[in-house]
User: Fold this.
Amino acid sequence: MLFERVGDRGPYFGEFGGRFVPEALIAALDELDEEYSRAAADPAFAAELDRLQREYTGRPSILTEVPRFAEHAGGARVLLKREDLNHTGSHKINNVLGQALLTVRMGKKRVIAETGAGQHGVATATAAALMGLECTVYMGEVDTRRQALNVARMRLLGAEVVPVSTGTATLKDALNEAFRDWVAHVDDTHYVLGTVAGPHPFPAMVRDFHRTIGVEARAQVLERVGRLPDLVAACVGGGSNAIGIFHAFLDDPQVQLLGLEAAGDGVETGRHAASITGGVSGVLHGARSMILQDEDGQTLDSHSISAGLDYPGVGPEHAHLASIGRARYEPVTDDEAMEAFRLLCRTEGIIPAIESAHALAGALRAGRELGPEGVVLVNLSGRGDKDVDTAARYFGLVSDADLVASEAERVSGPVEQTEANGW
Amino acid sequence: MSTTDLPAASAGADTTAPVPAGLSSASALDAARAAGRSALVGYLPAGFPDRAGCVDALRASVAAGLDVIELGLPYSDPVMDGPVIQAAAETALRGGTRIRHVLESVEQLASAPDGERAPVLVMSYWAPVLRYGVAAFARDLASAGGAGLITPDLVPDEAGDWIAASDEHGLERVFLVAPSSTPARLASTAAACRGWTYAASTMGVTGARTSVGSAAEGLVAAARGAGAERVCVGLGVSTGEQAAEVGAYADGVIVGSALVRALSDDGVAGLERVVRDLAAGVAGARG
Assistant:
């Protein structure tokens, strides 16, 4: 079946999940749940989504073996699931197309989204343009500056980008603002939540739209290698790409599932975004999950070089998989991720997203443990175009003069939307 | 932790006075009803503009006509709040306001002298209560003399622990209904409330508005029809005129952002002026 395994529907995943939202949103969540259930049982919906995936996204995404990179991973075979080759440059489009189709089915005219690195915002703006929907994207003001290229992309696609300056001005605050918008405009607006977090039915629904990653990859590895991988690695912020690739392997106990969380400067420093490794059970953004919070339940600031992983929570199903031991979650520091980033660029000619570089770092670790007989599947969730500026600065590839010049060209405050000719 | 272990209050309140028993917000609503008017319910975040200032401002507000105090527990991610209350909560958090300080404030307000004392409901997002421990929070809130808790992001479906804890400690629990609530949800929410039901006047977040949602009156009637004993209306009320409009049909009129703004802009004197205007509004609503 295209969607859902029996028993994985939510609203709870063990002790995690649920709906911790204002009453005003319950009706919209119920409507979404019902519409999604109808769509999941409707062959026409599956056929349309399948057509879009093939003809628009470019699915199935290919599997690339990376032997030169693997020399640094204990000689284990390393295979990359190339979600970076999807239209819009990441896995995010899988979920967005599904939710945009649902928006049209519900008769709503407008979508809103939150975005951190900008990939989900770009994907949502893309789907909105494709289907003739209005689109507003909320983005932390800090992120609008570190991902200015994606802000421009969204605006080119016709979306309104709203910089969010409240709280920490990052992804979690963009989510808050999107929820506020949704409460006020729920009649004509659908909130395209970008990860497997949030209130039911989002965690299960978003996962279902991403399951295609794992379903394809499982078949591709079997065909390529003749057996299942020993380990599947994926980066985890909210956790959508990871749950998408993990799910097809849940019933294969011999396959280890490894989620790599952003450890920033190191979990021990407190400047990190590793919610499972360094968090506690709590409530954030509508669901119970593992959260970075203080002893008063206040959400802590997260930190990562990767805007897309810079989130103090994680999807409830990941919290559950960690609690039952089916998947394990390990931290990867900024420096480890950037070393893996550099390595893939130099050994294979592939520039990954910094998010995905966390998974690559995990693959290097795991490969060294497994040795030459091991087979590691890595979800390369996105491409690195958006991160070139960050990486160039990290590695000192641009001169101080260039940095000064590019800073001078940037607006000092939030990125303002101007009435440019024709836009 | 028991509030008896708390350090001495700095707000000038006599914390040695016994906390009066039975100071429920429902009784304040009933008293207002008996007087032929709606009750005025006022919100400020604990710790805003600072801990002592908040308590002083609320005591002055009660003297100016506030019937029920809604004391906000500042939270880092207040999705139901608009910019005014968000900014106030950020101020309170930057000032170091913790849950124990909120409970201290409850105790100081609940033991204020006659004329400055009103039932105190805490309004809190669920994350801080869950982290503190639901049973422990109920115990300490009751021990501080709090009347109960308003939970903007906790629906009864998820509230099993809180329902048990509030029953055990005799605390009021106020859940919200919204214009989008179905008849079935109105009934189940009304049944889960103890004290009263909070009707959100509009689909949106807190903040002053030029008009109160037209759905509010119908929602109050529907909630009553679904079994709600008392229904107060919040979101968007900021003037005496609006308070009069809502007070004509609701058991209570809830005001938040307008009080926060008045206190920010004009201090306690400005806050008292706004409260008097609102109190006059509810007093004249059914004239």
Observations:
- Residues 417-423 of chain A have pLDDT under 50 and may be disordered.
- The first helix of chain A runs from residue 23 to 40.
- Chain A has two domains: 27-57+92-202, 63-88+209-388.
